Protein 1
Amino acid sequence: MQKKSIGKLGKFAVPLISRGRFFKEKRTNLRNDFQRDRDRIIHSTAFRRLKHKTQVFVNTSGDHFRTRITHSLEVSQIARTLSKFFNLNEDLSETLSLAHDLGHTPFGHAGEETLNYCMRDYGGFDHNIQTLRIITILENRYYEFKGLNLSIETLDGLIKHNGPIKDLTKLNQILGKDFFEKKINFTLNSSLEAQIASISDDIAYNSHDLEDGLKSNLFDLNHLKKIPVLNKIIFKHTKKLKNHSIDLVVRQIIRDIINEMVSDVIVTTKENIKLYKIKNLSDIYKTKKKLVNFSRRMQKFDKKIKTFLKQKMYFHKDVNSNTIYGKKVLTKLFLQIKKNPKKYININKYSNSNTERIICDYIAGMTDRYAINLYNQIK
């Protein structure tokens, strides 16, 4: 059943039969290896918690803003579309997209900065490496092993979705030296499926953060007209305001932004494959070039959106006040729990980790509201 499916994939696709897992398991005829990986992510505790973790707005700010889980689902949709177009392993791209933010703390990047500071003498904190801790150590759902025992290709994609790893220092400090037992080649490029998951992340948060920013009145369409590419899209749709609500017009604008960026990725990726003479899967791993990418025009657009969002949204006083509050909450929790860890955490269920790392795992796994409630109890 699986062998028959492989023939449907293109020559650049990661095969549907994995190279293996750290712990050997029997295969099933019901699902391929990467569908099993995806389902393990979806059924994990860490994935469910993303529902109540900050994307930009703290989870208590409103019911209609993105959270980490809605963001991950939107990344997954874009990644599946791109993978399907290129006849790649759609299941692998979906898995990587759903898993890529598992390691995020409460309060988003503010929480990550806080935990990294609290852990400065103990190896630091990084949400991408925390994702690896979750799927290899912290999720406990099976008799035979700790973690989710995901396929080698999924691990490789999560480790290198932003490209080869040149400096292993932080990875070794947080996970331990030779944790992956030489099954991952950190110097090789990532698969197209992993590169697609990465750029889909950019497309999703750029477009949807714009929508959430407009919805929260942090800025309006007039501010966005100053950005090339956006000005044409906005001009096309603002003419519809006579007969349609602003909410509907904004949704159509966001839809066009996504389409514009996805179309650009398709054209640019096809050009890169041709330019760098990529003939097979082995060539993808060996090349030092990022193949799945935006054109230069779209890279400038992407940069302008990110700069705009930083100035008008991420550093806005209303968002920034939540950032400051989130840092205050997590700093207090870390210091308080450190005084008496056993009061809050079942230390005995952890092994091969120092106390500070266990506390860090505990806090990183919290949802926004759990962290706030615990903070209110102990402050």
Protein 2
Amino acid sequence: MMKRQLRRLSRTGYRYLAKPLLFRQRPDASHAQMIIGARALRLVRGENLLRGWHYRNPRLEQQLLGLEFQNPIGLSAGLDKNFDLPPVAKRIGFGFEIGGSTTAQACQGNQKPWFHRLPSEKSIVVNVGLANNGIRRNIRRIKRYPRRLWRQFPLSVSVAKTNSPEVVTEEQAIADYCQSFRQLEAANCAAMYELNISCPNAYGGEPFTTADRLDHLLTAIDSLQLRRPLFIKMPTDKTLDEFEELLAVADAHKVAGLTIGNLVKDRRALIDESVLAGDIKGNLSGLPAKHITTNLIHHTYGLYGDRFVIIGVGGVFTAEDAYEKIRAGASLVALVTALMFEGPQVVGEINEGLVGLLNRDGYRSIAEVIGAAHRDKSA
């Protein structure tokens, strides 16, 4: 009860005090300050101060791919590019984190600004270009954390190809991906891997979002005999036929799961396209992705059932949003944009809200909800 009251007070404080101050700053500055704050908390061992937002209930726990998840809500890739946030993410109540994306070589990213807020759309325009410290430094950072941090809090490392004019051919890109995975395997520092084939803000575009090229990439990765489950971060801009071709390739390889999906390119997904000037580069997170990704999750689960563990991403701001993706077929759900628009207490609010929805619909556990929309239709 006290934690619920604290979350309500935090929501009010974020809405009327913190958010107005943050939104007066450029979003790039707000992002940098968040990372600096997380590092400062870690230095003074202050992460435990955040436990008041945490919500835990055994009905939200799952075991997937041999891993234990305290709850189905995770931090999506894109925010924690250099793995500064795992202790904070766990303390505020996330059940897992997807860090990165990281690349074989360090990347400076695209020219700033990297972010533009669209408050009326509950969206952020993202044009980072895979800025990160590179796989070697990021592995060192991950390995500095105590092993107890990862109990019921699996870490997935998202791997992309280096954003560089020197990594443009198919052969160069495959070698680049494999270099990162080899180092991760040697380091033994992650519970899962995410193969990011669909970053729309990188040099050379998205070469592996066609079936034949994806097949070549996955053949090379299969040969590495990875010891950790591999997820593919799927694009959101393909036709259903093209998307199904990618699914068929994934099904033919050692792919355990899918992250559905990445940023939205089509600006027609905005309620009001006029809020975004044509000369602003980048692609859309948050609300514009909500129905696009939920529909793709539903379609994928309808075709493949539980063949893939699906992580649903895009437009998750409430328990109802997460529940809809789980009913469509997602086992897990990840978010970023909600942290900016709703505040960090939103993670606990979503988890508590999910238990309320379980009670409403008569489910004993969140695992029973996965794919329920398909069973309801056939009943």
